[in-house]
Specification:
The structure holds two protein chains of two kinds.
Chain A (H helix, E strand, L loop, with lengths): L8 E8 L2 H13 L5 E4 L7 H5 L6 H27 L18 H23 L23 E6 L7 H10 L3 E7 L1
Antiparallel strand pairs in A: 1-3, 1-4, 2-3
Chain B lengths: L22 H13 L4 H27 L14 H25 L9 H15 L1 H6 L25 H34 L3 H10 L7 H34 L11 H27 L9 H31 L3 H11 L7 H13 L7 H5 L1 H28 L14 H24 L5 H6 L18
The chains are: A alpha+beta, B mainly alpha.
């Protein structure tokens, strides 16, 4: 790669002073028609999904499926050995469909393990983590996001992106430190 | 509706963080605990706890290599200190889940300052409890029989055994609370990354934080994951001690065979856990003065009230159990309950009386506000509560089996030095892990605490700041 080759532009990022300002800004950016952009903050901002128009997380559905999978696994895990592979007859009582209450406990435990694992690993998968490279890390100022910085970055690949207009919009909404972030 | 109310008419909640500090203060002070110099007291405590833990764990090697006979269990008492300590540790674990999960579901924001450390006690107490189940079976190399693993013998475990339910319950609890705890650290490791000056530590924290960017799209899934995990954990916290209690209540031994056991064990667990959480927080506040603004006296007061509530429920169970022994008309059960408290009926009366002193009498002092505010007294009450809960486990487990159905085999049980040493070892292990936690992991969830500050509220309400001394 030639050293003087211009680096690819990831987008335009700006810092905002407080939560109310950034929420308003997010609303305005959504209304301006931008699609590919994101808000970065040190903590989850209450109601920002609504302002950004990104809807609620469907991770809960994954957790539900995981939990049901756990119940099913436990059902099979207990019944297949106890009925088919190694019929366990305790006090002359074989395992049948009517002795299932004794199996409820392990069904519950596996539901919790499977549900919790799908919550954690689903979260990582949905967020595509661990991902050790992100263009925003190229911006020196970005470390502040883990302290008290609130940022918005608009992706250069967005259809509405134009350096001058986007910069003007961010400035109008109260953005400071407006910077081009390279990929 | 809120527009029609004046500032005075709104309910003013005590602040979650005293002193009106901002985000920067939180990052600086919480990561300052890790990135500052290791204090002398830390080294002193570490060199006390770690050798005790190490020596106690090496007693397990002695037990396994010599045989389970080095413990004092024999017919008819097959469960002594080992299962007492196991149930005790599983109980200690419960407060952490209660604080982090139940209070998250009920949107009690005051939990943000104390959740992380309370979850740490959960994970560490479970690690200590997990020492026992595999080892107490005597021949640990057969412990894999407990797991449903296809094997060349074509054997499978009996899934209708309460002991097997226990294996699943404790494993579920340990893995779910560890996942919950570790997931909560992801954004905090990102904060630590930006505050370290060493490029190597920066890389380590970058990896630990999974490359977290704090993007709103990520936070949305992250918050949903936390919500689902806490919902599952709340169910789990009630299920685990219930399952542990099935080990006893599904048997036919008088004193074990009762339906009150599941709630009894859960409530006792919450009481014991609250005692342990306060045991850790009160000295922690003294050691790190900056934490006094995060773990405020209001927090301590609330935890003391929760402790009192748990104690009252425990007392209710004691009373109802005693009443049922009288009213149920089973002479064996009646004898057992009398032998717990009266020397005429058996040699183990002291355990029952001391249990009542610690868990029934002493916590009543918490009705008095000045005692709740007096941290030293509260600390002492908590110590007695922890010890009292150990006694409760002992009273539940041991007396019923010292006198089985054949009077000629009645036998009193005494622990050996190996059992006492192993328990001391688990205590050493627990406090060693707590010390390592204080030194290497943010003891307060930085991101969560910031999110609960008034500055983080986009609607700008709750701006009124009160400072509670």
């Amino acid at each position: 790669m030639a050293p003087d080759k211009p680096r690819k532009i990831y987008g335009l990022a700006a810092e905002f002073s407080d939560v109310a300002v950034i929420t308003e800004a997010a609303k305005a950016i959504r209304e301006a028609g931008y699609r590919r952009w994101d808000v970065y903050s040190p903590f989850p901002i209450h109601g920002i999904e609504k302002a950004m128009g990104i809807g609620k997380s469907w991770l809960s559905a994954v957790v539900l499926l995981g939990g049901l999978g756990g119940v099913l696994t436990a059902f099979l895990l207990q019944n297949i050995p106890s009925i088919l592979l190694y019929p366990t007859i305790v006090d002359a009582k074989p395992v049948t469909l009517s002795t299932q209450p004794a199996f409820v406990n392990i069904m519950f435990e596996l539901m919790v393990i499977f549900g919790a694992s799908s919550a954690v690993f689903g979260m990582l998968l949905f967020n595509r983590l661990p991902r050790f490279y992100h263009p925003m890390f190229n911006w020196d100022h970005f470390d502040k996001v883990f302290d008290d910085g609130l940022f918005i970055a608009i992706d250069a690949s967005d259809e509405k992106y134009s350096e001058a207009e986007t910069r003007e919009l961010l400035a109008k909404l109260g953005g400071t430190h407006i910077t081009i972030v390279h990929d | 509706m809120s527009e029609t109310l004046t500032a005075e008419q709104k309910v003013i909640r005590p602040p979650l963080l005293n002193g009106g500090h901002g985000f920067k203060w939180v990052s600086e002070n919480v990561s300052g605990i890790i990135q500052g110099k290791t204090p002398i007291w830390w080294w002193i405590l570490f060199f006390i706890c770690a050798p005790i833990g190490g020596a106690g764990m090496s007693l397990l090697v002695y037990q396994v290599s010599t045989g389970v006979g080095v413990w004092g269990e024999n017919q008819p008492v097959g469960w002594g200190w080992d299962i007492t300590c196991f149930v005790f540790w599983v109980g200690i674990a419960h407060a952490g889940t209660l604080i982090s999960a139940l209070l998250l579901l009920t949107r009690q924001k005051w939990r943000t300052g104390i959740g992380r450390a309370a979850e740490a006690t959960t994970v560490f107490a479970l690690m200590c409890g997990a020492v026992y189940p595999a080892v107490h079976i005597g021949r640990v190399w057969f412990a894999w029989y407990l797991a449903p693993i296809p094997n060349q013998y074509g054997m499978w475990p009996n899934f209708r055994s309460a002991l097997l339910w226990d294996v699943f319950a404790v494993n579920a609890y340990l893995s779910v609370s560890a996942m919950f705890w570790l997931m909560g650290m992801i954004p905090d490791f990102a904060t630590l990354k930006t505050r370290t000056s060493s490029p190597w530590m920066r890389r380590v924290y970058h990896i630990l934080s999974c490359g977290w960017t704090g993007s709103a799209k990520n936070w949305r899934h992250y918050e949903m994951a936390a919500l689902c995990l806490s919902g599952l954990s709340v169910a789990l916290v009630f299920a685990v001690s219930s399952t542990v209690s099935f080990d006893f209540s599904t048997s036919v031994i008088p004193g074990w065979h009762t339906t009150i056991f599941p709630p009894y064990f859960v409530i006792g667990a919450i009481f014991a856990g609250m005692c342990m959480v306060l045991t850790i927080f009160i000295p922690l506040r003294a050691a790190y003065p900056q934490l006094k603004d995060i773990i405020t006296l209001a927090h301590v007061d609330r935890m003391a009230k929760l402790l009192l509530m748990a104690a009252l429920l425990v007392d209710y169970v004691y009373t109802s159990e005693f009443f049922m022994a009288y009213y149920g008309g089973n002479p064996y059960e009646r004898h057992l309950f009398l032998s717990r408290y009266f020397p005429e009926y058996g040699p183990l009366w002291f355990y029952g009386r001391f249990m009542l002193f610690c868990n029934l009498f002493l916590p009543q002092l918490l009705w008095i506000r000045p005692i709740r505010k007096n941290l030293l007294l509260l600390f002492i009450i908590c110590q007695f509560g922890t010890v009292g809960m150990w006694f409760e486990r002992f009273v539940i487990i041991v007396p019923p089996i010292t006198e089985d159905f054949l009077p000629s085999s009645w036998h009193i049980y005494h622990p050996t030095w190996v059992e006492v040493g192993t328990f001391a070892g688990t205590l050493g292990l627990f406090f060693t892990l707590v010390l390592l936690f204080i030194r290497f992991i943010p003891i307060v969830s930085i991101a969560e605490l910031k999110g609960a500050l008034p500055q983080a509220d986009p609607h700008g309400e709750h701006k009124t700041q009160l400072t509670i001394p």
